[in-house]
From TrEMBL:
<dbReference type="InterPro" id="IPR005543">
    <property type="entry name" value="PASTA_dom"/>
</dbReference>
<feature type="domain" description="PASTA">
    <location>
        <begin position="112"/>
        <end position="182"/>
    </location>
</feature>
<feature type="transmembrane region" description="Helical">
    <location>
        <begin position="15"/>
        <end position="37"/>
    </location>
</feature>
<keyword id="KW-1133">Transmembrane helix</keyword>
<keyword id="KW-0812">Transmembrane</keyword>
<protein>
    <submittedName>
        <fullName>PASTA domain protein</fullName>
    </submittedName>
</protein>
<feature type="compositionally biased region" description="Basic and acidic residues">
    <location>
        <begin position="203"/>
        <end position="212"/>
    </location>
</feature>
<feature type="compositionally biased region" description="Low complexity">
    <location>
        <begin position="237"/>
        <end position="247"/>
    </location>
</feature>
<keyword id="KW-0472">Membrane</keyword>
<feature type="compositionally biased region" description="Low complexity">
    <location>
        <begin position="216"/>
        <end position="225"/>
    </location>
</feature>
<feature type="domain" description="PASTA">
    <location>
        <begin position="44"/>
        <end position="110"/>
    </location>
</feature>
<feature type="region of interest" description="Disordered">
    <location>
        <begin position="186"/>
        <end position="259"/>
    </location>
</feature>
<dbReference type="Pfam" id="PF03793">
    <property type="entry name" value="PASTA"/>
</dbReference>
């Protein structure tokens, strides 16, 4: 094929007609997509989201229906001073513009406070560790109560003035009071003290001193109770010791012998 024949076929009406048809088709697709997306997404149409915070759920549903929006509950919370089924939060917030097909997500107030389980922190954690764990679980932790014991060690938990143990369920809005050691020991605690031991000692009783040094001497007396003496003036018993030598007092009833 010569160059002249090639340019002649290139300039033919058939080829230019196909090119023109392709260009028109592309333009139609582009215009269709452009206006089609605008129609599908309701381009240029928006609705201002009403503020339904602190409204009852049924009232909030009616308010959203009037403006063409839907409402859906995604979570519950608890505020003691607000009635049950009251709207606590909403997303998107009131005043924001959205499409009519947009869903408004809300959080409503529960009828009662949710309960939480007390963790095992008694006699197992320090004050700082216990506070961090309780706060991460959603508890409200008050000022600790110091009692005699090891410094900053957890000895008990009080809720509304009552002791609770690990595993007990308490309201989430209850204030947790930790009983913490103040670094001292209780004086009345004598469990670690040893009582003194006493040894029984047998005491030997000594006899009177006069029993070891002196001895008793029998002295003969007459019928009147007077001492009988021999011719030499000595007692008739012939004992080597007299009553005066034995250390005993003389008989007052005795009389001197007559010459």
């Amino acid at each position: 094929m010569t160059s002249r024949e090639f340019f002649h076929k290139f300039n033919s009406t058939y080829i230019w007609g196909n090119i023109l048809a392709i260009v028109i088709l592309v333009l139609l697709l582009a215009i269709g997509v452009r206006f089609g997306l605008d129609y599908y997404t309701l381009h240029g149409e928006s609705i201002v989201v009403p503020n339904v915070i602190h409204k009852q759920y049924d009232d909030a549903v009616d308010i959203m229906d009037k403006v063409g929006l839907k409402i859906e509950v995604t979570d519950t919370g608890y505020v003691k001073d607000l009635p049950p089924d009251c709207i606590l939060e909403q997303s998107p917030v009131g005043g924001k513009r959205v499409k009519s097909t947009h869903v408004i997500y809300v959080t409503i107030n529960a009828a009662s406070a949710p309960s939480l389980v007390i963790p095992d922190i008694i006699d197992n954690n320090s004050l700082r560790e216990a506070q961090a764990q309780l706060l991460s679980m959603g508890f409200k932790v008050g000022e600790p109560e110091y009692i005699p014991g090891e410094k900053d060690w957890i000895y008990g938990i009080l809720v509304n003035g009552k002791h609770v143990q690990a595993g007990d369920r308490v309201p989430a809005d209850a204030v947790i009071v930790l009983q913490v050691g103040d670094g001292t020991r209780e004086i009345t605690d004598t469990s670690g003290l040893n009582e003194p031991e006493y040894e029984d000692v047998e005491v030997e009783q000594k006899r009177p001193k006069y029993d070891e040094v002196y001895e008793y001497v029998e002295v003969p007396v007459n019928e009147n109770g007077n001492e009988i003496k021999d011719e030499r003036g000595k007692s008739g018993s012939g004992s080597s010791k007299s009553s005066s030598q034995s250390g005993l007092p003389a008989d007052p009833s005795s009389t001197k012998p007559t010459e």
